[in-house]
Design a protein that fits this description.
The chain has 2 domains: about 1-55; about 55-110, no CATH class. The protein has a two-stranded antiparallel sheet. Strand 1 (about 1-5) and strand 2 (about 5) form a beta hairpin. With about 110 residues, it is mainly α. It has 4 helices and 2 strands, in the order ββαααα. The chain has helices at about 10-20, 25-55, 55-80, 80-95; strands spanning about 1-5, 5. The protein is elongated and about 65 Å long.
Length: about 110
């Protein structure tokens, strides 16, 4: 099969061999490792900024609601209803981020 002048099998084989030769998988692992280890210093930077510019009561209420919702969602994830729970959690977090006051999430998924 030829697409735009290239044989698909030959192109796929050449792409795979050059990707392995360039160590793409190793670079992806290094990038993920560096990303996750850069999160903690980021939080150390953001925490004082929130205390300077944010309302203390609002920050505490949002963080406590997110933590409580996360605990309920984690219990739902362990009971095998993960995709619905993660969707519900995403909607809930989006409402919090936009400043909307959602009702407390229930432990049941409807």
């Amino acid at each position: 099969m030829v697409i735009l002048g290239y044989r698909v099998a030959e192109l796929a084989r050449k792409t795979a061999s050059e990707s392995l030769e360039d160590n793409v998988l190793g670079l992806a692992a290094q990038t993920a490792y560096n990303f996750f280890f850069s999160l903690f210093p980021l939080f150390l930077f953001i925490a004082p900024m929130l205390s300077l510019f944010g309302d203390k009561e609002q920050i505490i209420s949002v963080v406590s609601v997110v933590i409580l919702a996360g605990g309920e969602l984690n219990s739902e994830l362990h009971h095998g209803t993960g995709s619905t729970a993660s969707l519900k959690g995403s909607v809930y977090a989006g409402r919090i981020a936009t400043g909307e006051q959602p009702s407390q999430p229930s432990s049941k998924i409807e």
